[in-house]
Design goal:
By secondary structure, this protein is of the alpha/beta class. The protein has 2 domains: 204 residues, NAD(P)-binding Rossmann-like Domain (Rossmann fold, 3-Layer(aba) Sandwich), CATH 3.40.50; 249 residues, N-(1-d-carboxylethyl)-l-norvaline Dehydrogenase, domain 2, CATH 1.10.1040.10. It is 56% helix and 11% strand. Strands 1-2-10-9-8-7-6-3-4-5 form a 10-stranded mixed β-sheet, sandwiched between helices. Helix 9 packs parallel to helix 16 and helix 15 packs antiparallel against helix 16. The model has no long low-confidence stretch (mean pLDDT 94). Keywords: Amino-acid biosynthesis, Branched-chain amino acid biosynthesis, Magnesium, Metal-binding, Oxidoreductase. InterPro entries: 6-PGluconate_DH-like_C_sf, 6PGD_dom2, KARI, KARI_C, KARI_N, NAD(P)-bd_dom_sf. Belongs to the ketol-acid reductoisomerase family.
Length: 489
């Protein structure tokens, strides 16, 4: 995959990521005076939607551009978000808030941030409203996956670009605000140029990312982004994590722990010390924190979990690539008015979690070696699968490790894994509900019995762990970590 690009406005540099060179652009508020040049030809920028990403991106771009480009929010007629947009300073009176199709027709650049299901239902009307020469921006490649599925295509007379922040919308806004005082605050992002008819697509994408406050922006493709993103959220980012901790919770209870201790050794251990150590010192850092007996426990747990994770990630990736996961999201969106997704937080484990978090003493959360081995084993399986499928190192590191330990897991540590699974996007919620039981089942039925029944554990996969290329990749990417922790509301 050729990741190189040319920019007339910003400064490109190359970073050595293991055995590869990958181009990036550093952000920063000192570059905001270059944004008018990046957005040359754009007098009005429409942000469509007011979900977590829509609200954050509209406000960040408005503040960064400082009036050089008018940022307008487009919403459906009667939208429940209208008042929230007004409270944030957007107004129909000054032309910064309007009906979505009016805003699309009147904008020179349109950032489409409605839900995946809504995109699938409305894309033909959206495309019809775009002016020739418009730049269409996305923060997720789902629409490309849907177009592939139905035999559709983007209009040939518009740019198609993407900027994909590697964090939740609340974090995109909150760290941007912190960036006024703290150098380096912000959410890193990937960017893609799928179609360039104006000759300005790269600079508009980079300007968009820098305007959001991204400290670093790296290159991907729209297809690569949605394949890794949908696979990742069904894997270690949400669905896999959900299944892992439920299987561990039951196992620890079966081994005699109380409900509260089982939760601490499973969910709390993953979202707390394990994620915190990986964030700062990588996966090897977790292993090195363990004593010799714990290292053996880790190695065995890793060895039985890795092959299960690898098989499931391959299946997930095949389902995403074939269009089946995209189709399931579209169909779910049509069912939801009649059959809303139920919440998982009433199950016994998650009620126990509420009590554990209320009584939490952070320094007393255990770094459980078995839990660490299972979690990192599945995480490494996802890394290896994405490597096999040809994704760039920077994307693999973000979609399999950094987004988990620097964004999602800290949020779940504060609010609960069940809370995130119940309140994330429809696409992620559906994926987590569909695949979490598969991880739970495979680990419970196939991985843990090897150890619990005292069978011989094959350590062949673990033998590759300490020398894996991803450790060097993470070391380089750690240098691009935001200088403040991801915001947790």
């Amino acid at each position: 995959m050729d990741l190189d690009f040319d920019t007339k406005v910003f400064d490109k540099e190359y970073i050595a990521v293991a055995d590869r060179q990958e181009p990036i652009v550093r952000g920063g508020r000192h570059l905001f005076d270059r944004l008018p040049a990046a957005f040359e030809g754009v007098r009005r920028l429409g942000v469509i939607g007011w979900g977590p990403q829509g609200s954050a991106q509209a406000q960040n771009l408005r503040d960064s551009l400082g009036g050089a480009v008018r940022v307008a929010v487009g919403l459906r007629r009667g939208s429940a978000s209208w008042d929230a947009a007004v409270q944030a300073g957007f107004s129909p009176e000054d032309g910064t808030l309007g009906e979505m199709y009016d805003v699309i027709r009147e904008s020179d650049m349109v950032i489409l941030l409605i839900s995946d299901g809504a995109m699938a239902e409305t894309y033909e009307d959206v495309f019809a409203a775009l002016k020739p020469g418009t730049t269409l921006g996305l923060s997720h490649g789902f629409l490309l996956g849907h177009l592939d599925l139905v035999g559709g295509a983007f209009p040939t007379d518009v740019d198609v670009i993407a900027v994909c922040p590697k964090g939740m919308g609340a974090s995109v806004r909150a760290l941007y605000l912190q960036g006024r005082e703290v150098n380096g605050a912000g959410i890193n992002a990937s960017f893609a140029v799928h179609q360039d008819v104006t000759g300005r697509a790269v600079d508009r994408a980079l300007g968009w990312s820098i305007g959001l406050g991204a400290p670093y922006t790296f290159r991907t493709t729209l297809r690569s982004e949605y394949l890794s993103d949908l696979s990742g959220e069904r894997g270690i980012l949400a669905g896999g994590l959900h299944g892992i901790v439920e299987s561990l919770y039951r196992r620890f209870r079966d081994h005699g722990m109380s409900d509260e201790e089982a939760f601490r050794h499973s969910a709390e251990s993953v979202t707390g010390p394990i994620s915190r150590i990986i964030s700062r010192d990588g996966m090897l850092g977790v292993f090195k924190k363990l004593d010799s007996d714990e290292k053996q426990v880790f190695a065995e747990a890793y060895s039985v979990s890795y092959p299960v994770g690898l098989e499931l990630i391959h299946e997930i990736y095949d389902e995403v690539r074939s269009g089946d996961e995209v189709r399931s999201v579209v169909l779910a969106g049509r069912r939801l008015p009649r059959f809303p997704m139920g919440k998982i937080d009433q199950a016994d484990m998650w009620r126990v979690g509420q009590k554990v978090r209320a009584d939490r003493v952070p320094d007393e959360i255990p770094l459980d070696p078995f839990t660490a081995g299972v979690f990192i084993g599945v995480m490494m399986a996802q890394i290896d699968a994405l490597l096999e499928f040809g994704h760039p190192y920077s994307e693999i590191a973000n979609e399999s490790v950094i987004e988990a330990v620097d964004s999602l897991n800290p949020y779940m540590h504060a609010r609960g894994i069940a809370y995130l699974v119940d309140n994330c996007s429809i696409t992620a919620r559906l994926g987590a509900r569909k695949w979490a039981p598969r991880f739970d089942y495979a680990l419970t039925q196939r991985a843990y019995p090897v150890i619990d029944d005292e069978q011989s554990v094959n350590l062949e996969e673990f033998a590759k762990f300490e020398e894996h290329v991803v450790h060097e990749v993470l070391r380089v990417c750690a240098g691009m970590r935001p200088s403040v922790d991801i915001f947790v509301e």
